[in-house]
From TrEMBL:
Its main location: nucleus. Keywords: mRNA processing, mRNA splicing, Nucleus, Ribonucleoprotein, RNA-binding, Spliceosome. InterPro entries: Nop_C, Nop_dom, Nop_dom_sf, NOSIC, Prp31, Prp31_C. This is Nop domain-containing protein. Gene3D superfamilies: 1.10.287.4070, Nop domain (1.10.246.90). It is found in: Nucleus. PANTHER family: PRE-MRNA SPLICING FACTOR PRP31, U4_U6 SMALL NUCLEAR RIBONUCLEOPROTEIN PRP31. Residues 335-349 have a biased composition (Pro residues). It comes from the Eukaryota.
Length: 485
């Protein structure tokens, strides 16, 4: 019987036999794959992250140079209206605008890459600066302005950053743990800052060119948000067709920046708002209604972009109609609420209202009816002081209670009408024998309390007396005193 070790050895022998049967073509492919992997690793190793030219390559490309040259020539010629008969897709200016939109996106990505390069180099000098200044262009300007300066009081940052951020940067720089950069690293950092600022100026030229042609390319969007904001929206979205396919909630966020308030209040800051914040409608709207206006502007801009993408209205009347609708809605939001109208009194009814009656209502009225004692307590005789619980008119007054001479404050409560009615009905029932004189009469009586009762009707005859005898006056009683006249 083979052991476990012998079975393992047999499996290894089979594997070695299968490797020997691999065809030569597969061996060649595997060799090529190994060569490709080695080549990629060699390229990664040859990429020097200390060299700015190996990281940023956009400015040296033929496409960047060609597009920027065409943009400068178009800006020098000025805005000329294109031929209306030519299809929009075949218009060379529209093709240039599409290329400009794509190039603006590439420029933004390139600025981000250069910003990371500057942060990595300048982190040794001022590590806290990247958390205080988030925008790449502002960061590049501040780094170029500060350089290796240790005392920031000697550096004028006015105009580059808000005053609140300048104060925070100055205080943080006095307690930073960074050290001055070597001369070579500082030169590379300053060169990267210059390149980022140059790319930013190129991006502005591209946006200026697109803005000058927006009246022809996207007339409806320009009518709502303006040519400048429409050009920025198109450039960030990647073209008019991409802007038309984008939902309104994303159009609202195009161009939004991460704002660092440095611990200050967020009451007046607008979050989740992009380029739409720069529109005239947004700026003239009261602050409490600006977020609603921003959502409305984004929605209408998306509809206008969809109209422009299919050339539905080259005159821009649709955009003007949308703008008027937006202004009317904002005015409607600011209207005060309608005044509360006085409610007229109902017409008095001449006939008495129908009220529910019956046994239940009568019982309820008797239950909550005012008693005779309470009636007496609520009454007062003229000229006679009432008795009170604390005396001398203090405490709860008793009214006419106890003023009849009895010396008591309790009044015997009379029998209620309902109880009297029930007692009357109970008396009317005959539980004894009838008045018949036949031989079947009996002295047995059936009562609901004692059941069968044997009674003698003649037992009380001597007590009642005859019919002529009075039952009110006593038979033995006499008048105690008779006054003679």
């Amino acid at each position: 019987m083979a052991t476990l070790a012998d079975s393992f050895l047999a499996d290894l022998d089979e594997l070695s036999d299968n490797e020997a049967e691999i065809p030569e073509e597969n061996k060649i492919d595997a060799a090529d794959m190994e060569e490709d992997i080695d080549g990629d690793l060699a390229d990664l190793e040859s990429l020097n992250y200390d060299d700015l030219d190996s990281v940023s390559k956009l400015q040296k490309t033929h496409r960047y140079i060609d597009v920027m040259q065409k943009v400068e020539e178009a800006l020098q010629k000025g805005s000329e209206v294109s031929i209306q008969g030519v299809d929009l897709e075949d218009d060379p200016e529209y093709q240039l605008i599409v290329e400009c939109n794509a190039l603006s996106v590439d420029i933004e990505n390139e600025i981000v890459i250069i910003h990371n390069f500057i942060r990595d180099k300048y982190r040794l000098k001022f590590p806290e600066l990247e958390s205080l200044v988030n925008h790449p262009i502002d960061y590049a300007r501040v780094v170029k302005k500060i350089g290796n300066e240790v005392d920031l009081t000697l550096v004028d940052l006015e105009g580059l950053l808000p005053s609140a951020i300048i104060m925070v940067v100055s205080v943080t720089a006095s307690t930073t743990t960074g050290k001055p950069l070597p001369e070579e690293v500082l030169n590379k950092t300053i060169d990267a800052c210059d390149r980022a600022l140059e790319l930013d100026s190129s991006k502005k030229k591209v946006l200026d060119f697109v803005e000058s042609r927006m009246g022809y390319i996207a007339p409806n969007v320009s009518a709502i948000v303006g040519s400048a904001v429409a050009a920025k929206l198109m450039g960030t979205a990647g073209g008019l067709s991409a802007l038309a396919k984008m939902p309104a909630c994303n159009v609202q966020l195009l161009g939004a920046k991460k704002k660092n308030l440095a611990g200050f209040s967020t009451a007046t800051s607008q979050f989740r708002v992009g380029y739409i914040e720069q529109t005239e409608i947004f700026q003239t709207t009261p602050p409490p209604l600006r977020m609603r206006a921003c959502r409305l502007l984004a929605a209408k801009s998306t509809l206008a972009a969809r109209v422009d993408s299919i050339r539905g209205d080259p005159t821009g009347n649709t955009g003007k109609f949308f703008k008027d609708e937006i202004l009317k809605k904002i005015e409607k939001w600011q209207e005060p609420p309608p005044a509360k109208q006085p409610k007229p009194l109902p017409v008095p009814d001449s006939e008495p209202k129908k009220k529910r009656g019956g046994r239940r209502l009568r019982k309820m009225k008797e239950r909550y009816a005012i008693t005779d004692m309470r009636k007496l307590a609520n009454r007062m005789q003229f000229g006679i002081p009432e008795e009170s619980s604390l005396g001398d008119g203090l405490g709860e007054g008793y009214g006419m209670l106890g003023q009849a001479g009895s010396g008591k404050l309790r009044v015997s409560a009379g029998q209620s009408k309902l109880a009297a009615k029930v007692a009357k009905k109970f008396k009317e029932k005959h539980y004894g024998s009838s008045g018949a004189t036949s031989g079947l009469t009996s002295s047995l009586a059936f009562t609901p309390v004692q059941g069968i009762e044997l009674s003698n009707p003649q037992a009380y005859a001597h007590q009642l007396g005859s019919g002529t005898q009075s039952t009110y006056f006593s038979e033995t009683g006499t008048f105690s005193k008779i006054k003679k006249t």
